[in-house]
Design brief:
The protein is an alpha/beta fold and about 500 residues long. Helices cover about 45% and strands about 15% of the residues. The chain has 19 helices and 17 strands. The chain has a seven-stranded parallel sheet, with helices on both faces. A six-stranded parallel sheet has the order 12-11-10-13-14-15, sandwiched between helices. Strand 11, helix 13 and strand 12 form a beta-alpha-beta unit. The longest helix has 22 residues. The radius of gyration is 22 Å and the shape is globular. The structure holds uridine-5'-diphosphate-glucose (UPG).
Length: about 500
């Protein structure tokens, strides 16, 4: 680790687990590389979550140099249920309201950074803010520091999502079902069904367009962007994103606990090899050990892991078809199960969501393990029995899966997930798309067919696994840091820090 320093960086993640998790990893990575003090600002309940995450990782002695700072937030003032401080339990429609409400953090965040500057006699080295808080670039400018945007997505997904929201190119497509991103090659061509219905219906005057257009435009005024990806993994996506933003983009991924990314692949699981992923901030209804024990009882690469991230659910009819397809495939699986769309996300599990007697049959046959609400995902993906991941293609899930060479069955449900899926299927060959969004009708026969295809150790499944293995090596090589031999992400982080320090020097001279 570099020598301790008086420099400080303030981070502002968006209020969602899919954003908080990579911000935590980024804070650790920067602190370990530089010794800088890092402050993460968030609302009270998210601070509680972050705090328990740090406390749970006893193998990280630096965590006292990462401080957590509270920002006041009252969801009830914004017409949301009380104590809503993350997207976790919100329906997609309520998320729109939550995005607007989150903008009330601007004034308290300005005061917080201003107080930090007054206390230490100079502003922090920089603010690293989420792309959803683009206004942080104005806060940084007004307080004499710089802002760096962290998108938390991959390069291709970030480019597609940002460019489509800003330009709404699908509106000018005429009779065609396809459109492409203006100024980009044909590989950036999309089918209209790859747009989530919010985006498909957007016309620039709706609240979603207004939110995304203003936050992306503000973020494009920052000093550069950080991306949780790797040069060798997304060369084209990064080139296109740089052309679009006309700003430096530092690819500093994969943002994963070092114990996971540097783990010896011969050990069967993170837990078995004494690895803590430092993710215990969420209450698990099943112990990590029980999941590992279940996985141990299955053969290598034989288990399908199913999860739709921290905030999405599928529809009741899709849930039935998925369960039937799983049972008919006879393949072992672990399924993180949540109330389907239309039910309160916090409600108790109900047997009626699944075919009659499903859970009991799966348990008796040792075919399936149903995990309520939240599973130790990284530990499951790191286990050698896990052979594929049925995922909504949230970017953290993509990176976590490929860092373990686990191919993906894609089922995008929101946000930029369809673009992540397109890249994984068309550019990388490590995924097959099962279906898209919530409103698609899903047939259990199709579920069975796709599961059999991907779980097959030969043929298409074997080919996907070999390609995923190449990506795993690229992701691991990027964080190599042995003397002069530094991977691309380590060099990118060095470059970010040098750029920030030279900006600081320039501003103190002028
Ligand atoms: O049971 C679970 C479910 C999730 N996770 C973790 O939660 C994170 C989920 O992140 P992600 O896979 O990216 O999904 P979302 O939570 O849906 O992420 C949001 O944020 C991502 C990053 O910006 C975007 O790519 C997604 O579209 C957006 O929905 C991952 O680290 C998972 O390991 C668990 O540990 N256990």
């Amino acid at each position: 680790m570099a020598s301790k320093s008086n420099e400080q960086i303030v981070m502002l993640p968006f209020l969602a687990h899919g954003h908080l998790i990579p911000f935590i990893a980024l804070a650790r990575q920067i602190h370990q590389a530089t010794g800088f003090r890092i402050s993460i600002a968030s609302t009270p309940l998210n601070i509680q979550y972050l705090s328990s995450t740090f406390n749970s990782s006893s193998d990280e002695p630096e965590s006292d140099s990462i401080t957590l700072l509270e920002l006041p937030f009252c969801s009830a003032d914004n017409g949301l249920p009380p104590n809503t401080e993350s997207t976790e339990n919100l329906s997609l429609d309520a998320i729109g309201k939550f995005l607007s409400a989150s903008q009330s953090l601007r004034a308290p965040f300005h005061s917080l950074v201003s107080d930090i500057s007054a206390k230490q006699g100079h502003p922090p080295l920089c603010i690293i803010s989420d792309v959803f808080f683009g206004w942080a670039s104005e806060v940084a400018n007004s307080l004499g520091t710089v802002n760096v945007t962290f998108s938390t997505g991959g390069a291709y997904g970030t480019l597609a999502y940002s460019s489509i929201w800003l330009n709404l190119p699908h509106r000018g497509r005429g009779d065609s079902d396809e459109f492409h991103l203006p100024g980009f090659p044909d590989r950036c061509r999309f089918h209209i069904t790859q747009l989530h219905h919010f985006l498909r219906n957007a016309d620039g005057t709706d609240s979603w367009s207004k939110f995304f257009q203003s936050q992306i435009s503000f973020s494009m005024q920052s000093a550069g962007w950080l991306c949780n990806t790797v040069e060798e993994f997304e060369p084209a996506g990064l080139e296109w994103l740089r052309n679009f933003l006309k700003l430096p983009v530092w690819a500093i991924g994969p943002l994963l606990p070092p114990t996971v990314i540097k783990k010896d692949s011969s050990s069967s699981s993170a837990v078995a090899s004494g690895i803590s992923t430092g993710r215990a901030g969420k209450r698990l209804e099943i112990s990590v050990e029980k999941c590992m024990e279940w996985l141990e009882s299955h053969s290598p690469s034989s288990v399908l892991y199913i999860s739709f991230g921290s905030q999405n659910s599928i529809s009741p009819s899709q849930m039935m078809e998925l369960a039937t397809g799983l049972e008919e495939s006879a393949k072992p699986f672990i399924w993180v199960i949540r109330p389907p769309v239309g039910f309160d996300k916090k409600c108790e599990f109900r047997a009626e969501w699944l075919p009659e007697g499903f859970e009991e049959r799966m348990e008796k046959r040792k075919q399936g393990l149903l995990v309520r609400n939240w599973a130790p995902q990284l530990e499951i993906l790191s286990h050698q029995s896990t052979g594929a991941f049925l995922s909504h293609c949230g970017w953290n899930s993509v990176v976590e899966s490929l860092s373990q060479a686990v191919p993906i069955i894609a089922w995008p449900l929101a946000a930029e997930q369809a673009y992540n899926s397109k890249m994984l299927v068309e550019e990388m060959g490590v995924s097959v798309e099962l279906t898209r969004w919530l409103h698609s009708s899903l047939d259990w026969k199709e579920v069975k067919k796709v599961i059999e295809l991907v779980m097959d150790k030969n043929g298409k499944g074997g080919d996907m696994r070999s390609k995923a293995m190449v990506i795993k090596d690229q992701l691991r090589a990027a964080v190599r840091d042995e003397g002069e031999d530094k991977g691309s992400s380590v060099r990118a982080l060095d470059d970010l820090i040098k750029t920030l320090q030279s900006k600081r020097q320039m501003s103190s001279i002028s």
